[in-house]
Amino acid sequence: MTRRLALALAAFAVAGCVYFPSVQDAGGVRFKPEKGRLVRQADGAVFGVELKSTGKYGDTLVAASAPIAKRAQLVGAGGAPVDRLEVPGEAIVKLGEGAPRVVFSDLTRQLTPGEVVIVTLNFVKYGNLGVVTVVE
Questions:
Q1: CATH number of 29-135, picked from 2.60.40.1890, 3.30.9.10, 3.55.50.30, 3.30.465.10
Q2: I need a surface site. Which of 53, 64, 71, 119 has the fewest CB within 10 A?
Q3: pTM of the complete model
């Protein structure tokens, strides 16, 4: 009986020493936006940024918004509208002309070069990410 008790206590002690890391501990989803820019066009503006994904896991961009526009559309590298843009983990994804991008239309006001606008990107896992953007 003492031996069973000792084995049971040892099993409980060993079971309590197990560590299961969370997604955040293992690298999570992390983004660092750089070089945010909003290029004016005749009927709207094109948003570009270098999005550094420094986490171990990727995410999916599903929407964008900005206070200067009523409408935002995700557009693939070929120019066709897309529902989502994949951002792999541990990679740099460039958004802008000639690449996947966000096109803003139905502007609420005129944009001035040098003006700063906050563009909000919405990701499935990460949630909202505000990007400080300069109008060109």
A1: 2.60.40.1890
A2: 71
A3: 0.79
